[in-house]
Amino acid sequence: MDPTHLQTLYALSRKGLKQLGQSDLTEEVKNLLSSLPKKNGWLTSAPLYQYQNFWYPAVQLQALLNIQRNFQALDTDLVVVTNPKCGTTWLKALSFAIVNRFQFHFDNPTSKQYHPLLTNNPHILVPYLEYFYMIDQNPDLTCLSFGTARLLSTHIPHASLPDSIKDSKCKLVYLCRDPKDTFISFWHFSNKLRPKNTEDTSFEEAFEKFCEGVVDFGPFWDNVLGYWKMSLESPERVCFLKYEEMKKEPKIHLLKLAEFLGVPFSVEEENDGVPEQILKLCSFDNLSNLEVNKTGKIAGIGFSVYFRRGEVGDHVNHLTLEMIERFDKINEQKFLDSGGKENEEMLDLNRTAKRRVGKT
Questions:
Q1: Which residue in the list 123, 155, 253, 315 is annotated as catalytic?
Q2: With b meaning 16 or more CB within 10 Å and e meaning fewer, what string describes 226-237?
């Protein structure tokens, strides 16, 4: 990969990340915030603001407004979408490896040795749109066009996507996860990122806020349902994946993802074991033990915070039975009451996780 391209991505991501938790907001955004519902967040002491029925930190809301107004999607764009802490790092790595495998050949030992994922964190290679638009109303995104398609990512809920994405032919890949495991992952993540001089949020308080939907880009369930419904209406545009199913049958879902992204594996590639090589390259054990992900950082945030366990069912080690029942009840209410039979499949998000935990 062109070193200049990587330097630009690092610079843009660093520029955006430095604004997290700061008050570098436009007067327009400050005025808007004064009119919005707000509640205390639990990542930092900064409040979350409700906009278009979802909750955002102030700087993320400023990014959203800039994206809605100025981002111009291309029909060839590929966008990775998740709720926070739903396997985003893994999906970014897989998507990058799939789309760019013809540039970084797996049958060439020299090329594989210098694969960008071996020396760069997936969040740099597949950057968040939000980082670019936090402080720049209309940033230059030409650095993203190094292949046949731009590979982007976002946490933005479907309802708040810019019209340019909704009206284009670009493709979106959405990955959801059992909300119980998502909450636990987010809890550990927030504890690692919370400034030392910030008062800790208790586990019980964080649990209540998550259940109430007061979490970055939440409510969790509404974020999931927006993309689930879009995948039913436009399956050619939205590939809806479930973390638990991907962990259970990774190769099947890798082939499905490649097909959707427009770069299916050939019979020859499958015979040569290319899918297995990609899965090994992007595995938790491999990525988490790379030097760049153990010691690298950007804007003071270590890449190691993106790697904890990546397991299915870890919530049983943290949640009480009452908490688990509360989550399951919300799942039933959200996934059935909002859509009847068409959403029954979403309950497999919960049932699959239960079956897998039972086997451990």
A1: 155
A2: bbbbbbeeeeeb
Starting at the edge strand found earlier in the chain, the sheet holding 171-176 runs: 151-154, 78-82, 171-176, 238-242
Q: What confidence score (pLDDT) does residue 180 get?
A: 96
In b/e form, how buried is each residue of 254-263, taking b as 16+ CB within 10 angstroms? bbebbebbeb
Report CA torsion sign: 69, 155, 168, 124: positive
Cis status, amide bond into 219, omega within 30 of 0: yes
Q: What was the pLDDT predicted at 134?
A: 84
Q: Which of 249, 298, 236, 271 is nearest to 16 (CA)?
A: 298
Q: In the predicted model, is pLDDT for residue 360 greater than 70?
A: no
- 195-230 tens-digit pLDDT: 676 677 889 999 999 999 999 999 999 999 999 999
Residue 115 known to be catalytic: no
Ramachandran region of residue 12, left (φ > 0), alpha (ψ -120 to 50) or beta?
alpha
Whether pLDDT at 141 is above 60: yes
Residues in the chain: 360
pLDDT grade, residue 358 (50/70/90)? very low
Q: According to DSSP H, which parts of the chain are helical?
A: 3-17, 27-33, 58-70, 88-99, 109-113, 122-125, 129-133, 163-166, 179-193, 203-212, 220-233, 243-248, 250-260, 267-271, 274-281, 284-288, 291-295, 321-337, 348-359
CA distance 77 to 65: 20
116, 139, 176, 250 from 3: Cα distances, Å: 10, 20, 33, 31
Position 139 scores a pLDDT of 86
